[in-house]
Write a structure and sequence with these properties.
Blueprint: E1 2-4, E2 12-18, E3 23-40, E4 47-48, E5 62-68, H1 77-87, E6 92-93, E7 98-99, E8 102-106, H2 121-131, E9 148-149, E10 159-160, E11 163-170, E12 173-181, E13 186-189, E14 192-195, E15 198-199, E16 202-203, H3 206-211, E17 223-231, H4 235-252, E18 253-254, E19 264-273, H5 277-297, H6 309-313
Parallel strand pairs: 5-8, 17-19
Antiparallel strand pairs: 1-11, 2-3, 3-5, 3-19, 4-8, 6-7, 9-10, 11-12, 12-17, 13-14, 13-18, 15-16
Helix pairs in contact: 1-2, 4-5
Length: 324
């Protein structure tokens, strides 16, 4: 197994963000269309076109997945993606117009900087333009610009997160994941706690705090992402792959899929490689888990008091809140 860059999977990926406003968009494009899948497990999702991805529905391919901040307002960014693709003549041919099929999911970052600045049509369009030169990078950009994790004690005791990616190649089969991590829970790298609510400046286990009696009240969360692969899949197989990929969420985020998260994972398959679905799902879960870790590891401080993993890891963080 070899690690590869997510951009080697043949999709166009672009970011656009407003760092002052603390929000952004990440767009994944496939002009010829990709076989889609989706799995929604969070209790508070914000999504678009997930019903269409059901294996029983007519449309077999989608042209984009959009990951955005802004809560439900951020779904507006998909309109900019539709406009961009329509201008390029890309979409499902209805006979009178080509309609781009754009699926999307949003996370809640309104409490990070400004609740009045959200991803909109123009930002979605800009992310598409950026996808052609390929400006995608992990970190606090795109959909991960306003992402934070570990919010059981409120947003001011959370830690900064972002968007991350990981991809693997085994023989001719490639699979990768892009994940914007805005989780209610704490994030782990294997068995090691990376990020969570801060007590005395140190990230803590959200599960432990819940066991001690704290409630999951803060509703500013959600982890969203997309699995990309060059495998040949049906819609039913792609939906199953999304389900298996959610195991990566559970490995890296504890707790996950809570009532105050809107966790959603898409699949886009655009290749012809034949492979065993169980094997592909195993790789996909590994990629999702690694992408979540990378989102936290590469998070950047955007000039505020919410620290990053690198700041805590290097001993730069000196103050925190002890609630006990």
């Amino acid at each position: 197994m070899k690690e590869i860059d997510i951009r080697e999977l043949g999709f166009r990926i672009g970011n656009a963000e407003d760092k002052d406003g603390g929000t952004g968009v990440t767009v994944i494009l496939c002009e010829d269309g990709a076989v889609p899948g989706v799995d929604v497990r969070g209790g508070a999702p914000g999504t678009r076109e997930t019903d269409l991805i059901d294996s029983r529905e007519m449309v077999e391919r989608i042209h984009s997945v959009v990951l955005a901040g802004g809560s439900a307002f951020g779904l507006d960014a998909s309109s900019g993606v539709m406009r961009f693709l329509e201008e390029k003549g890309i979409g499902f041919d209805t006979g009178v117009a080509k309609v781009p099929i754009v699926a999307s999911a949003v996370l809640f970052d309104l409490a990070y900087r400004s609740a009045k600045i959200r991803p909109d049509l123009q930002m979605g369009y800009e992310a598409c333009r950026n996808a052609y030169p390929g400006n995608y990078e992990d970190g606090s950009r795109g959909a991960g610009t306003g992402a934070t994790v570990g919010k059981i004690m409120g947003p001011h005791n959370a830690m900064k997160s972002g968007i991350g990616s990981a991809a693997y190649e085994v023989g001719s089969v490639r699979v990768g994941a892009i994940v914007a991590v805005n989780a209610f829970g704490s994030v782990y790298d294997g068995g090691s706690l990376m990020a969570g609510p801060r007590i005395a400046g140190i990230p803590a286990s959200t599960e432990d705090l819940m066991i001690k009696g704290m409630e999951a009240k803060f509703r500013g969360n959600t982890t969203i992402g997309c699995i990309l692969t060059n495998a040949r899949l049906t819609k039913a197989q792609a939906n199953k792959l999304a389900t298996m990929g959610q195991d990566g969420f559970a490995r890296a985020i504890r707790p996950v899929h809570t009532m105050v998260d809107g966790d959603t994972l898409f699949v886009m398959a655009n290749g012809s490689e034949e492979t065993d679905l169980s094997f592909l799902g195993t790789l996909a879960a590994m990629a999702v888990e690694k992408a979540i870790v990378e989102a936290v590891r590469k998070a950047e401080n955007l000039g505020d008091d919410i620290p990053t993993y690198s700041q805590i890891d290097s001993g730069k963080l000196k103050h925190g809140l002890d609630i006990f």
